[in-house]
Amino acid sequence: MMMSQATATPLIERLLAPTLTPLLWDDEAGLVMLDQRQLPQAVMVLTYTCPLAVAEAITTMVVRGAPAIGLAAAYGLALSVKQSLRQGLSLQATLTQLHQHEAVLRAARPTAVNLMACLDAQLAVLQAWQASPHANDTTVLLAELTQKALALHQADAAGNQAMGRYGAELMPDNAVLLTHCNAGALATGGYGTALGVVRATAEAGKLARIYANETRPRLQGAQLTCWELMNDNLPVTLLTDGMSGWLMQQRKVDAVVVGADRIARNGDAANKIGTYNLALVAKAHGVPFYVAAPRFTFDAALADGSGIPIEERCGDEVRVIEGQAVSPAGLPVWNPGFDVTPAHLITAFITEAGVFTPEQLTDWLT
Amino acid sequence: MMMSQATATPLIERLLAPTLTPLLWDDEAGLVMLDQRQLPQAVMVLTYTCPLAVAEAITTMVVRGAPAIGLAAAYGLALSVKQSLRQGLSLQATLTQLHQHEAVLRAARPTAVNLMACLDAQLAVLQAWQASPHANDTTVLLAELTQKALALHQADAAGNQAMGRYGAELMPDNAVLLTHCNAGALATGGYGTALGVVRATAEAGKLARIYANETRPRLQGAQLTCWELMNDNLPVTLLTDGMSGWLMQQRKVDAVVVGADRIARNGDAANKIGTYNLALVAKAHGVPFYVAAPRFTFDAALADGSGIPIEERCGDEVRVIEGQAVSPAGLPVWNPGFDVTPAHLITAFITEAGVFTPEQLTDWLT
Fold first, then answer.
1. Which of A71, A250, A274, B230 is least surrounded by CB atoms within 10 angstroms?
2. Confidence (pTM)
């Protein structure tokens, strides 16, 4: 079932340049993804031809970040039809298997709503195809699912560029910014949401420094954010998650900018665990707290954050670091993957459609 | 110069039982300390006969925790005279070397004031000896420095027991507590300051659960606090430093209790980095925030926290975990070892002399 394998440099080069992206579609190879668990020690590429392996890649965090896992799932449904064609399945069997794969992908991680939104977009493609004159031709379905996934991918990267420009306008000259986790190119179709704002601020000549929380337990800040910002020669400094308050006491911090995994209609925002602490710390210091996210991350069906499901992950993520046990065997651990920052701690949302305060969200979303 | 060596079980047993202590004096062996860098993976003992090696043990965190490093330094001056006797040094050479050792020990770590207070106590012993009829007999000086160090050690452990009782009185039934770093038996002469309060709460039958922040970068919470509390069969749960706010949102937390490395006259308190964030988070949730510390940790000479020197430690403590690089090579890192929590975030100080609000401190200290 695991159809992943290490591949040679050409695919790696297409992931890394001209702009970094965590995943790409190759008509021959299938879905190609950076193995983000190996960064920054090794740049490894895995190639997927089976949608169930893509679901496992989402669960095990080969690919992570709300927009990126949505795109991986969208490509995953194209892989499903490709697999059925390869297996010579009937139309009925193809559709049955497609729905099975869709259910497994949808359940791969619960918190980020982009996963559900991208799968819904592909189900709309399926319905349109079923109502079309080509409803018997699964090669057309494959082409349309692939085209939609590519379009979602391109729209995400383009949206992040727009988001970046809106965000950069909010930043002062010589801006010192602070971020949490990785809401970068690696978490999206490219360029990044929060790190898109950082990149655009740098492109506008206004970035003095970007501080990165290491983001325990998975260390996405240390391993991913620092890696992608160093590759872009941006002035990044790493700190641990407990240092943000002292940083704001001791040095100038102009703004915090983070991504999100799901945002309710009232502006309550789920994001990587530790974001809520950071928002409280920013509030106490009067530092603006921005959430950068595309429209897909907003869940208009949810009135507030209490309805957002929060994934609890294995305690070994806390107990064991890089294969080394750092605490006593058998120790009880609490390991929520996300937290919810209430809207009143959020200065504004930076989206591809502009900047909105929490109060302005309902109008935009409806 | 490094006179440390691994030794056999009897000394280990004396460190672990009847009550855990991170260090002890043995007239034959010298100063015996647990190597806290190895916990919880290995329980290793190092034996010191040279005070310069003790200073290095303080710097490299073989022994850590404000009270414990003060005691190690006090024993270190006894070792200095013992070494001079062994070397057959003259009275003058003994005193010259003693002052050199005292200066090196004093500079081993800058933030915790207990180190300076314990060395000052030993200098008072030296002065009294110099004014005594035995001022030519360095064997008497050795005996008196040893006796003083033992007395400081016993007083610290006894003070922690008193502190614990005062603290336990503040806690409700079925108390759920949260702590940061290790202010336990391992950080003191025994029993612990913050963890002394936790132990006394348990002994009073009132402890439902103690949550422990892992405390990056050195992971003293995960490695030391969890180890010593598990050994006492106390109900400890580990979490990462970024989870405290979400914990208070999702579960009952009755109080935060932490130790301190130096407390100014107005109540501003330096403690392990991450404490300030935790105090802000507790304040936002209306959770009482207690600092447990002996009189030696209060620096009555300092009007407020702005005068507390904050140690900045090597960036590799953040970049490398258990020998594994977790971030890109050459990455800039900010690594302050401590932060200062302002008095207005502190509900009360729990000391061996009773419980004081920040406003009550000046009267007590003068």
1. A250
2. 0.95
